[in-house]
Design a protein that fits this description.
alpha+beta; 5 helices; 22% strand; globular
Length: 171
């Protein structure tokens, strides 16, 4: 049943990504949250200017930009967070890297990124990107696809996360 729903093109996640909110008239449709979308655009702009996830996180902290969890809490949005910070301006490089790799910012819905071996198990297993179900232009984009190509290579290590970008201009 879950797979069938994922293949229908409707988003499977409970909460839309930072920068979007659920449409009050249709909970399966996302609309742009202008305040958060401005931060998302700035993150992509900083990346275009050559900053990596760690430097972007440091820049946002320096500018006192609320992180997605603090922003969600301030706006009454239930945000699942593994870590809570007393300082609402702390950004993690992993958060930035995850945001930079999300096709949802181009207006696409991406389903079936994970699966479970059995409905009895809670542990999620990541699917190969070739198995993802991608539905293009299902909601308004925050980042213009004509101006950005999402990462074509992502490598992770304990010390850093590198994201390779082909980017022109986000403004």
């Amino acid at each position: 049943m879950f797979k069938a729903k994922g293949q229908s093109g409707k988003p499977l996640c409970t909460n839309p990504p930072y920068g979007f909110i659920k449409d009050p008239e249709d909970k399966t449709h996302w609309i742009v949250d202008e305040e958060a979308a401005a931060v998302v655009k700035e993150i992509f702009h900083l990346c275009m200017n050559g900053l990596g996830p760690m430097k972007i996180a440091n820049e946002l902290e320096k500018r006192k930009v609320e992180n997605p969890v603090a922003y969600g809490k301030r706006n009454g949005i239930a945000v699942p967070a593994k870590q809570a910070y007393d300082d609402p301006y702390i950004w993690r490089d992993s958060t930035i890297a995850r945001m930079l790799s999300r096709q949802e910012y181009l207006g696409h819905t991406v389903n079936l990124k994970t699966h479970r071996k059995s409905y009895k198990q809670k542990k999620k297993i990541k699917n190969d990107p070739s198995e993802w179900q991608i539905f293009e232009n299902t909601h308004e984009a925050i980042i213009d696809e004509d101006n950005a190509t999402l990462p074509h290579s992502t490598t992770s290590s304990k010390s850093s996360t590198r994201i390779m970008w082909q980017v022109r201009d986000f403004r």
